[in-house]
Amino acid sequence: KAKGEIDKLPNLTKEEKDDFKGQVDTKTDKPGVDEVVKAAKEKDKKNLDEYKEKAKGEIDKLPNLTKEEK
Fold first, then answer.
1. Threshold 0.85, pTM exceeds
2. Are 21 and 3 in contact (CB under 8 A)?
């Protein structure tokens, strides 16, 4: 179940997903597994936030858009 949750996170790379799933395999109790899933979700959000900031920077570079359009 935990690996399925990790696989559903759209903002993680395949390598990141594989790493988190490998960490799940090393845990021996539910709290440990839950901790890995929480970390994966936090990384997913961080990746999304970074992508948004990068996109905003690219939009700001577009010379033919007004301030309102940006």
1. no
2. yes
